[in-house]
Predict the 3D structure of the following.
Amino acid sequence: MDDERTIMHIGGGFEDRSVHILHAARESVPVRTGRMKRRLLAAFAALGASFVLPGRLARAVDVAVDVGHTLAAPGAISARGRSEFEFNRELAQAVVRALQQRRFDVATINADGLVPTLQARPRAAGGARFFLSIHHDSVNAGELQPWIWDGRRLDFSDAFAGHSLFVSRANPDTARSILCARTIGARLQRLGFVPTHKNERRRAYADEEHAVHYYDELAVLRHASMAAVLFEAGVIKNREEELRLRDPVLQARMADGIATGIAACLRNGLPADEEAGADRGPR
């Protein structure tokens, strides 16, 4: 293998007897089997799926679930001061569990928040059938209002709430991307989740009913070699929605809807003519 190594938990063991941990400087340090191996296995088992460092998957999986943002660039800050990355990681873990319950082989991308670039995320997922990037939404700076929470000066906006989905016509499989976004959106609405249409102000619809938007230049979607969808779970600047999105029961219910939608897309779905036509790019 090259110097961009992956650590994969396959059938209770590593793929070889000497694995490497990739450091930020891309220097690899060999890790031998034994006590260190047991410690690594115990740590990664808590993630609920294969844990992938920058590079490519050591084997093909069904779904790669990407945790949006990083520790260094944690994304939006919620109304109560929590980073988007923390929201993303919790929901991603719930989605991984829900997919595994449906017997999908799943890999988690960026669970540690250390993936160095946006391009590295889909590259690490190479070989997967489907790529899902988990995010939480914010609002424009001009729509925020100041408030004090727990002694901290923060901001909020209660104007918008709800989920949305994004696909790219620069992705090599836009048709399947749209289909999966539609089935995810449809299942979430069936479960009672209400989408937001705030993003229609900047992003054209691929499917208005299910709040699926085109975001052609989005790096994690256009650099993916497989069908890919970015999911915005809700607006964490909204004070009520933030609390809902932190609820483990709601997270599990949302994850169940996402996993059911992915299952319908990958196992049963065939793209419609208008979805296949989207691969030709913007018209």
About this structure: Helices lie at 35-45, 84-101, 120-124, 174-190, 219-222, 239-245, 248-268, 273-277. The chain has a mean pLDDT of 83.
